[in-house]
Amino acid sequence: MAVRPPRWYFSLRSPYSWFAYRELTENARDVADAVEWRPYWEPGRVTAPLLADQGIELAYVPMSKEKHLYILQDVKRLAAERGLTVGWPVDTDPDWDVSHLAWFLAEDEGMGREYIGRACEARWGRGLDISDPAVIAGIGKELGLDGDALAGAAEDPQTVRRGVEALRQVSRDGVFGVPFFIHRHDKFWGSDRLDRFVETVRAGSRPAPAAAGPHSVPAEPAGQAPAGDAGHAGGCG
């Protein structure tokens, strides 16, 4: 059986994915080149009904108010440590199909990574609504791409089919939050797990088990998912 390549799931709506993107492309380019880049997003207007028709349900848990407030504080702190200023976006009714389906078209032109960088900067650096097709068109034009095509990706049946298949892969891989990294049988959730993922990809082997310590968290029993809005710094749903 062929060994599946390492892969990471990114989302344009996640500030932690933004941090992971910057660290991968700036400090671990060899790993960025070695892994598959895969989008993850909450299904929107066009993909949600198609996934429902196929009986596919992603492991997505709506964020609690308490976690949302914590993330605001945490992201501000982590951004400051990286010399970044966050321009908090105002998008009261986002449709993540718009920005994520556009990525497929940018990727076709060899500009997928650049698109992610521009989209994250637009959302987290300038506080723009990347669910607005006009914003996506502007990003496309900045990259020398067909901005109108990117802005209309969610209206293109072929691109929508690719998006549905990508979200099917999200379900098959058991991804429940972002950023999410997979190497062989090992899964890592959160930007604060990126260093460990980079180590395992570079080593080409499974990581050694972490030693138990006073702050160790017991593993969940097999087949039992944590209840509620579980999470940790470095990742979000």
UniProtKB/TrEMBL annotation:
Disordered: region residues = 205-237
Recorded hits in PANTHER family, A to Z, give: GLUTATHIONE S-TRANSFERASE KAPPA (PTHR42943), GLUTATHIONE S-TRANSFERASE KAPPA 1 (PTHR42943:SF2)
Q: Could you tell me the keywords of this UniProt record?
A: Isomerase
Q: Where is the composition biased (Low complexity)?
A: 205-214
**Similarity-based family:** Belongs to the GST superfamily. NadH family.
Start and end residues of each DSBA-like thioredoxin domain: 9-200
Q: InterPro entries, alphabetically?
A: DSBA-like_thioredoxin_dom, GST_Kappa/NadH, HCCAis_GSTk, Thioredoxin-like_sf
Q: What is its EC number?
A: 5.99.1.4
Q: Which Pfam families match?
A: DSBA
Give the catalysed reaction(s), semicolon-separated. Answer: 2-hydroxychromene-2-carboxylate = (3E)-4-(2-hydroxyphenyl)-2-oxobut-3-enoate
What is this protein called in UniProt? 2-hydroxychromene-2-carboxylate isomerase
> What is an example of a GO molecular function annotated in this UniProt entry?
isomerase activity
Query: What stretch or stretches form a coiled coil here?
Result: none
Claim: Repressor is one of the keywords in the record: no
